[in-house]
Amino acid sequence: MATLSAFPNPNPNPNPNFHPDHSQTLDFDSLMLPQPQSPPPQPPPESSSPSPPPQLLHVSFNQDHACFAAATDNGFRIFNCDPFRELFRREFDGGGIGHVEMLFRCNILALVGGGSQPQYPQTKVMIWDDHQGRCIGELSFRTVVHGVRLRRDRIIVIVEQKIFVYNFADLKLLHQIETVANPKGLCAVSQGSDSLVLVCPGLHKGQIRVEHYALKKTKFISAHDSSIACFALTLDGQLVATASTKGTLIRIFNADNGTLLQEVRRGANVAEIFSLAFSATAQWLAVSSDKGTVHVFGLKVNSSVPENEKPQSSSNSDAAINLSNSPLSFIKFKGVLPKYFNSEWSVAQFRLQEGSHYSVAFGLQKNTVIILGMDGSFYKCEFDPEHRGEMTQLEYHNFLKPESTI
């Protein structure tokens, strides 16, 4: 059960490097009570030698992938993707942030403590207003918070086996959802103002749950035989892509009725999928894994495929491939060639360090991909859908190095 607290509203202490978007700023006046003003946080004293970079605990893109947030063992930093630059940072005296969630480019963020010395309890979600430079509210839970998702009208909090949905304006609890064990904090929400679609793990292995709040409808999709490792939702909530712990196949479903629309193959060997991302037009899907390769797949979500030609589930649905859909002329070798020869493969790849954790998103420029590494690396790459093959690296930065600040 979550509990709610609110903090006073002091005189604002604007951040000179970040201009709030007042059209998206939320009204928390109803939560505020008069209280003596606290002094604003002071910057650390300057030293003659540069301090070592902080430990990176979490990175996440904002909703339209135009920015990303980095949570560290001494605070958090916000970056612009294109052009790459640091927008601002907040550093605490030895206090770590394990998760920071942005709300587009708004001055409101959600923070969760983390690291060896958390700035806040890991059982709380702190609502931070960077225009004021302080927390203005909190949500408390009985167990550790594994993730937070934001919309302009909702806060979604993920704990081990539950998801809580709150109204953003007054932090009123609207809905609770039970899930299987979810230590990764898997959850995705649409961003359309006219409807809210939420995707989360279901109650059974390999199952996802889709909540259509405007339609008051719940849809369960048996996506894989293996446990769910990762999924992504388009901003309009119409398509959902899923990957299992096998990491070989990625499936794209109609989020409304659960129809399997397409199935693509990352590779033949088991891999851990770190992230999935749709392009803004849902024309492309990007995938990162522990194999050190980012793949881009072309999507055919509008194609009409007869029911009897869609991939059918089997005792091993992660390897189920329908040979009749193959573009290859190997029909006479049925039963001889491995099934993965008949899969849809990626149109572009980018090689990275194997074993490292990377998150992906599509850039604002056409056919570009942004890659964030837990080692502080930022890559901007371009792919050629006509000639396929390896992507071209356009930019590289280390966003943890002191000299990268502004």
From TrEMBL:
Gene Ontology terms: cellular component: phagophore assembly site membrane
Chief site of localization: membrane
Key words of the record: Repeat, WD repeat
Region (Disordered): 1-56
Repeat among keywords: yes
Gene3D superfamilies named among the record's database cross-references: YVTN repeat-like/Quinoprotein amine dehydrogenase
Protein name stated in the entry: Putative transcription factor WD40-like family
Organism this protein belongs to: Lupinus albus
Lineage, highest ranks first: Eukaryota, Viridiplantae, Streptophyta, Embryophyta, Tracheophyta
